[in-house]
């Protein structure tokens, strides 16, 4: 209360103590702070007028009244007991912090005060000593009596014992000045150690600092993960090490899980009408002598109105006190049970069991103990769940409705019982309850299937297994039953009954599994009964092959492995079974080796593959060798001496034998005569049946290594006789007889259809097929035999192919050819691909100029001739060739009386190439030689105008005028303007008549001159202006002062004034960061070069990981003067870089350059010649672009 202290110690809120009186209240003012020590024997009270009192809570007596602990005229904002009952901390409205030491001397209680922090250095508005629970009192860090203090600018952590020492200083960043600083300690288990964590926040960010003590006794503070919020905080409270409760500025509570930063719940508490400490922070009781910043923080301060104890948070309102607490884990589960949310209750309980739940209260102890407590509670819920299922079962309606109901409910019970590993509960109480309803019983049994198949459910009772199999049999779910049987422990079942059921329902996998695992019998499953249905025979045969393969490889069927001590026995039993001479109860007419014979007839290839895999696993001992040889002998006896097998089956046998004989460690013996018999059998010319099959079988035999068993010459002879062209091809390839391979392709009847389709293309590609392999003589023989009627076409195609192939390899092969071969290649290229001649000549070097010029002139390739003449340095001849081409394009159609108009594009391109030729060579010619080039070109341009009666003018008048202007513009760079004008005026066409004929040409030349002069003057002015602007800004940047963002080092967080080392320097960067030079050197942020150290900002460079490191160097503000240099110092270099980044955009000089190249021709009506793709990206393609070249403003007369 404002004048008295009310203490409620009774749970029924009965008043037990009333401390103080109205007289004391009138003298001291309102109570502004309270604190109770650990054993609840003493109470400290701070008042608005600055007094402090201590009360005995047992007797209610006033023990001390302290009036001189801090400067008068300031209110007590905080008062806190430490873990030492004789030591307390107080904080007043002046921002100072004092230590209060309580002593008793000669029976007199005294109090000594010591100033820990003066408000003149920064006003402290929040303090929080570290308190440890009873079980943590022996923690090494408690001996330091740590105290956290929050001022308006930074956080400090100091140790009060054994001597006063500052352990950490952490400055704030930029934030709202009205936000409230908050501090809270809590011991948290991090990895294997328990250490205190300090949470401090101001505004919308919560920082967590881990405080640890090392072996040397020093304390280290480590930053942990931050918590970023979207609201401003006015209170922070720990509930436990994982859960915190936050109060925002609109009086809304937020329950947060610290590790995941997930918001668990939000509660509105505006109805509490929380009491704020604004009047105390403003020190209204003492005249309001506080700073404006502290008064602004006090608007939202509610430090003394919120307290927590034992997981409860107390909120003091204007009319009442509210207590908020988190429900315990049992209460949370019970709350869901009351709402009949059993599924949610089980899920929540399981999260408690696995330790994944958040904001857990009331569940402590070791992990196994916690799991046992939760498991017992889950069992109770499951029993209640089962009862509820049976009670709420729909009594009437369709059977489908009831099945759906139990399918939704029963799996939950099964899942959680198996998760808890309570098989006893599942198969006793739960199954008994489900058995009361036949539908529920069936759903329960079906729910067990996925757990049985995944081997998660073992140890079922015999009754459950029996009921499960009967249920599947009644439901005709044979596949499900078989899948379950192969995962069960069948020793507890009636094996005879299960085997009979498997035979009746054709469950071969289950039957084999029961015999193997139940009776260790691996032979009886192979003595199968005969099936009437063909499909059943196929299924059984395939399963038997896989089963035999597993047994011989030591694996169990259909899954798992055979016990190691049984593997040799099983292999021997299976081999003995396979090679039995007769079966049990065999009839008289039964042939020998019936089991091997049956398997070979069923699938020869797969049975032999099984044997091959088995031979791989055999150890190289005497018994294994005997078994292998015996099986091979039996296979030969059964298949070779019997005509029931097809050629394909016989071929599979000998392919198998060839593979075995080809092994390096082979010990088998097979008579080579048998291979010869097989060869004669497969290559028999009298048997035309299965020709392709026999050829494919023999080919596989040869590829498997059987070729070593035959005489190659005899093999080729028999293959040719049998028309086995693929066999012949295989043998010819081994002997590198490629001409014979092509004969095989042409004679093979299996490829005739393909050859008919490809025959026309074969001639085109003949050189590609033959030349890599054949000699010229064999290629000629092949063509003369098979393509005698098309020899001329083939020769012509070969010439074209050679030219194209040489051109395709010009980059790598032709550079090393002799001149004669190269010239021959160029001649072929002129004949078949003249468009590529010029590009090839530019690339090649190994040809003679005179001979090559004669070749291209003979083929009338004018551009190539001009290029070679220019390369020969006969510029005039090259020019005459190009001029001749141009004249032909202009006059040729009319000389022959044609009315066809030649391509304007061709004329324009030819003129452009001619101009380029003149421009390339004008620099190395004298004036007379230049005139010999340019004036004939100008003469050629004006000559069509002389034939005034010609129809040329009707089609080309304007076009030729533009071309003439283009020639004049280009020759003006090499020929003086008076000579050009004189030549034009002397021309008979322009020398008579009106001046209007040449007026356009002359005015165009003058306009070009004026435009270029204006462009030059404008460019000069812009360059001067840009240079002046750049130098002015550079000077302003490098001469401005530096303003540090803070007065402490950004690495050690110490104020720069604290450093007293003479070798230490203060370094300030242009980004505003301040460092000690020794701190920067420790972070390797200084590079010594040429006797000077080049510094980089630690923070800025760290924020650009792997990217563009801030190479901006620092401006050194040293305590000793330094000498200046003529070069730019690092600070000036940084300023210049900033200036360059600031002045971005298209260069004005570049704009004018582009304008002179592109815009000028359009402005003066000149013909525009495309200069490549760069014009497409020109800024002048934009319709909105305008360049205003206005004259300077006129000077005003005085």
TrEMBL record:
Similarity remark: Belongs to the VPS8 family.
Q: Which CDD domains match?
A: RING-H2_Vps8
Pfam families, A to Z: Beta-prop_VPS8 (PF23410), TPR_Vps8 (PF12816), zf_RING_Vps8 (PF23412)
Task: Please give the start and end residues of each transmembrane region.
Answer: none
Q: Could you identify this protein by its name?
A: VPS8 subunit of CORVET complex
Gene Ontology molecular functions: zinc ion binding
The WD repeat ranges on this chain: 24-65
Q: Which gene encodes it?
A: VPS8
Gene Ontology terms: biological process: protein targeting to vacuole
Domain RING-type per the UniProt entry, residue ranges: 1049-1101
Which superkingdom? Eukaryota
List the keywords (alphabetical).
Answer: Metal-binding, WD repeat, Zinc, Zinc-finger
SMART domains for the chain: RING
